[in-house]
Write a structure and sequence with these properties.
With 1024 residues, this protein is of the alpha+beta class. Helix content is 29%, strand content 16%. It has 31 helices and 38 strands. The longest helix is centred in the middle third of the chain and has 21 residues. Bound molecules: zinc ion. Zinc ion binds next to loops.
């Protein structure tokens, strides 16, 4: 297990996932500077040939001086100064507020100034202010951009001079042409003409991370300043660009956070509940959704960003004192972004933090240990769509209290990139936070406006270079070959690409492409007697083509390519996952085609994936849905529950000229017309057969499922909950406290899912939080109307308890199925519910969110039904199991470990004692790494720990051998993992415990391993 302890806001590294997450504040950041990495970054920035250099622009002359003719709002200004805890924590840009006789200040809604102590507005109050502002000023417009999972509104606010807002639509159509240079035939002169007429759009977003509370009020006041202030530099901003603002991205979480803050203010001197739920499903992982696009907030922000053809997406966070412009950060940088973007990061961050330095504000810096490798962060919606991604980490107190904060040496120490570091201790207020956020934004908006044409040109150039990708760095396209077995998972992958606004085509005729020559390594070691590798590949009609000559080729390339993080990389603490290759994670073969002739193959666009019809099933009376590890077989079983007869075959069979795998669904007593809409909805195909096959079958189960969560942490289980919801598999949502009070779980449920990410040891799961102090309620009340909806308790502190452990054990022993993964698998092992299963020692193994290959041990076992020989798995930190025929983890000597003693002969010879005939020893066992070591009769005799053969653990998947193990990401010293069990079913009493060393349902990205979980459900009672 990684022992990394330093990370920053939104961190969800495996280490973070596995440690208790009791605080609702972001963990702190250390700055391990890696000069080598940094030098490499600087070199890239220096060598980048940006088409239009800054020197060709008007010199930056803004002075940030106020308009002496404009009155200031004296009372508001006095309160700004009162709430700012030290003069250096403000700037000349925000230490006053200009007065207006007609336009309301934030005080109109807040009752005090932005950032005032004790004032934390709900999203709705924030919106009310923006709408008042829009009513009073022609320079402000408010738009609804969508809703959250819980139905709360999301908005965007446009601020600019009235003349710009009235031209927004026609400006937008010009920006759309720059965004898609095919519309101007890639003609730079035409683009130049468009640039000269256009103004840019800069999109700022706040409060995606709910405990980071300052942004909404800072953005309220920022919008007022942009609309009202007559300072020449502000006038320049609003007459040269549109500032677009979404003040609250995670609206569900904001409202819960405000509830908690109100509870805290009403209970002085008491501990208050941590923010257990942010969004409906996940917490800080809402900032890891920019790849799979599963959350409504991600879709709403991307659609807004693209509808406005914005050039920047700038997200506001809090964790690091006092402001860290982190996108420049540290290496490695994402390998699929345009180098122009890395240059833009550097320019914007350097100017921005230098401005804050010039105002004398301490603790403003741009380098640090955030790496920009993974494109899962919200800002990457811009970074991979030809825009500019930016992010501030500022300092916050997790609410509006003014607090003395004590920093750690790594936070306040002086270093080369932080010559004026934060103070070692500081009295910090939400107003201080709002000063920093606004000052930084105002100065960077000014810089951006001054260089608007330069950035618009870059926007065009990045878009053009994306279209030119096949002819420059390549590839030409990615191809998902027409394949019935992968169809269902291909559709999941294509839906993600469609959400990313990637254009998808389909071949209307077969196409043949040349394959690249084998790699140097393969050439070096030709295997004797093996045929030469193929030089071409043919894709059948109907294959899906993702052309790289389209404006959003980069996001497709970043998702579909593979990643390699070198163990030698100077960055030793990857900030997030190191591998994510979607072709692997979706278990859908994706071909990276470099031969550009693919682009002239006959193909037609696929405008709407939902309109692609599923294969015609035929009249019946029976239908077979072949099991090829689709995600949605369980969806179909639940949908047909009570209206059809569904059984599952236990062997492969052939019928009507088709081959069907064990685990296929046989559906009877349903009309084709009733079945077809379900097949279409779930991307499944059925074959009509005249009579049921003669092979052994069992009824498909639609078990009663409970998903159990702890009150410690709910994020990773939230991804599981989301998966079940999206697949329409119903479940009860229960918690460890209800289990501790429910002695007869088996009477209520067949399956209990204990998803990973409890964030705690087995003992902490049992104990919960320490019981000293006051109760911590999570309940709906007049004070906290947004809490307690998903689940509730009068006190978060009590855990599962020993009674709960006993109830879970009874549940399994009485025939229930318990599904566990990662840390909850460890919990099941430690609590004795998985006899013969152990966690493999990790030794010096290092895996950080990688994609690893596994091998199916037996696909006649129901959990592995439908899978081929290999399954790519997501591994957060390299967990694997060992299995034994004993309930205790004892070393039993194997042939591999045996070392011959001193004696006659060579190293491989046997020693033979002198003076007597040779007595042959029994051969030592030679198990594979995924097998239990067989015992001899001596070891078995009267051994109370010996597990009866029928109760021994079954290994379903094991990790691949070392040479095939790594697909994407970081793998170092992989021996403790190679060939070891990854998915195991343990027998306990009459029931089963299914243990995943991987996380099969993770961030909406692990589509390929979903069926392992859902196979277990529909085969409940028949898991063998
Ligand atoms: Zn954050």
């Amino acid at each position: 297990m990684s022992t990394r302890i330093t990370d920053q806001c939104g961190d969800n590294t495996p280490a973070a996932r596995r440690r208790p997450a009791m605080t609702h504040k972001c963990p702190q950041l250390t700055f391990a500077v890696r000069f080598l990495a940094l030098c490499a970054v600087m070199e890239v920035a220096t060598l980048t040939l940006v088409p239009f250099s800054l020197s060709a622009q008007t010199p930056v002359t803004e002075t940030f001086q106020r308009d002496p003719a404009q009155a200031i709002d004296e009372s508001y200004t006095q309160l700004i100064r009162k709430y700012t805890t030290a003069p250096a924590l403000n700037s000349p840009l925000t230490d006053y507020l200009p007065a207006s006789s007609s336009i309301p200040t934030p005080a109109k809604v807040l009752g005090d100034v932005a950032g005032a102590p004790d004032v934390l507005p709900y999203a709705e109050e924030t919106y009310r202010y923006f709408r008042l502002l829009a009513d009073a000023s022609p320079r402000v417009k408010v738009f609804t951009i969508g809703h959250t999972e819980e139905g709360r509104e999301m908005i965007a606010v446009a601020v600019a001079d009235e003349s710009l807002l009235t031209q927004a639509q026609e400006n937008g159509s010009r920006l759309a042409q720059l965004a898609d240079p095919r519309s101007v035939q890639l003609d730079d002169a035409k683009a130049q003409a468009l640039v000269s007429q256009s103004f840019p759009v800069y999109y700022v977003t706040g409060a995606i991370h709910s405990p980071e509370t300052g942004a909404p009020t800072a953005l309220m006041e920022l919008a007022y300043r942009l609309a009202v202030d007559n300072a020449p530099y502000v006038q320049f901003i609003r007459t040269h660009m549109i500032t677009l603002i979404t003040p609250v991205v995670e609206v569900d979480g904001r409202d819960r956070m405000v509830d908690i803050y109100k509870w805290h203010k009403a209970h002085p001197g008491q501990n208050w509940p941590h923010l257990l739920y942010w969004g409906h499903y996940v917490a800080h992982d809402n900032n890891r959704d920019a790849m799979a696009m599963t959350l409504d907030l991600t879709k709403n922000v991307l659609n807004t960003y693209l509808e406005w053809h914005a050039q920047v997406l700038h997200d506001l966070h809090e964790s690091v004192p006092f402001i860290y412009d982190n996108t420049e950060g540290d290496g490695p940088y994402n390998s699929w972004i345009d180098p122009i973007l890395t240059h833009e990061w550097s320019m914007l961050a350097s100017d921005n933090m230098a401005r804050l330095q010039s105002f004398g504000m301490p603790g403003a810096f741009t380098h640090g240990d955030f790496d920009t490798w993974s494109p899962g962060y919200l800002i990457f919606l811009a970074g991979l769509h030809n825009g500019i991604s930016r992010l501030y980490e500022t300092f916050g107190n997790g609410g509006a209290d003014t607090e003395k904060r004590v920093l750690s040496p790594d936070e306040y120490s002086r270093t080369w990139y932080r010559p004026n570091p934060p103070y070692p201790t500081v009295l910090w207020s939400q107003r201080d936070n709002n000063n920093y956020e606004q000052t930084a934004l105002l100065s960077t908006l000014s810089y951006f406006a001054q260089n608007a044409k330069f950035f618009l040109n870059n926007f065009y150039w990045k878009s053009k270079r994306s279209v030119e990708k096949p002819a420059s760095e390549g590839p030409a396209a990615y191809v998902l070959a027409q394949d019935d077995r992968s169809w269902n998972r291909q559709m999941q992958l294509l839906k993600v690409l469609a959400l990313q606004h990637v254009e998808i085509q389909r071949l209307t005729q077969a196409a043949t492409v040349a394959l690249p020559p084998p790699s140097h390594k393969e050439e070096e070691e030709p295997k004797p007697g093996t045929p030469p590798p193929p030089t071409s590949q043919t894709f059948p009609v109907g294959s899906f083509i993702i052309r790289m000559d389209q404006p959003f080729s980069r996001v497709a390339d970043a998702l579909l390519d593979r990643q390699f993080w070198s163990p030698e990389d100077p960055q030793k603490a990857p900030y997030d996952d190191t591998g994510w290759s979607f072709g692997d994670l979706f278990n859908a073969k994706v071909s990276r085609v470099t031969d550009r002739t693919i682009l002239s193959a006959p193909m037609s666009p696929v405008p709407d994936l939902s309109q692609i019809p599923s294969a015609e099933a035929g009249p019946g009376p029976f239908f077979v849905v072949n099991n090829s590890a689709q995600v949605s077989l369980a969806s179909l079983v639940y949908a047909l529950q009570g209206s059809a007869e569904v059984s599952i075959c236990e062997e492969n069979f052939e019928s009507a000229g088709h081959k069907f795998a064990a685990g296929s669904l046989i559906i009877g007593r349903v009309e084709a017309s009733k079945l077809k809409p379900w097949l279409q909805q779930f991307n499944l195909a059925a074959v009509s057969i005249a009579r049921p096959p003669s092979v052994k079958v069992h009824p498909a189960a639609a078990p009663r499922i409970a998903i159990m969560h702890t009150w410690l942490y709910t994020q990773a289980e939230g991804w599981w909950r989301m998966t079940f919801d999206k697949l329409q598999v119903p479940f009860a949502y229960i918690n460890t406290q209800t289990v501790s009070k429910e002695p007869n779980l088996r009477s209520k449920y067949d399956v209990i899912v204990f998803a990973p990410g409890a964030g705690a040891s087995a003992q902490q799961i049992v104990d919960g939080l320490p019981m000293w102090g006051n109760p911590l309620p999570w309940q709906t009340s007049s004070l906290t109307p947004n809490l307690g909806k998903l689940d509730s308790t009068e006190d978060l502190r009590p855990g599962l308890g020993e009674a709960g452990v006993a109830h879970l054990k009874d549940f399994v022993q009485q025939g229930g199925l318990l599904i566990t993964s990662e840390d909850t698998a460890e919990f099941a092992i430690e609590k004795g519910m998985a006899p013969g299963v152990f966690v493999a020692p990790r030794k010096t193994l290092k895996v950080v969110g990688s994609v690893l290959n596994s091998a199916v041990v037996d696909n006649q076992l129901p959990v592995a039904y439908g899978y081929d020989t290999a399954v790519p798995l997501y591994s957060s930190d390299g967990m694997a199991f060992t299995v034994s025929n004993l309930t205790v983890n004892r070393d039993i000597l194997t042939a591999k470990e045996y070392k011959r003693p001193t004696g006659r002969g060579g190293p491989e010879d046997e020693d033979i004692p002198e003076g007597r005939p040779e007595e042959k020893a029994l051969p030592l066992p030679a198990p594979k790494a995924w097998q239990a070591t067989p015992l001899n009769e001596e070891q078995e005799r009267n051994n109370p720990f010996l597990i009866p053969p029928e109760l021994r653990p079954q290994v379903i998947l094991r990790y691949a051998a070392m040479k095939d193990l790594l697909l994407s990401g970081l793998l170092e010293n992989g021996d403790p993992l190679a060939e070891h069990p990854a998915v195991v079913k343990a027998r306990f009493g009459k029931g089963d415990v299914l243990l995943f060393a991987n996380n099969p349902l993770y961030r909406g990205e692990t589509i390929g391993s979903y069926a392992l979980v859902f196979n277990a459900l529909i085969n409940f009672g028949h898991l063998k």
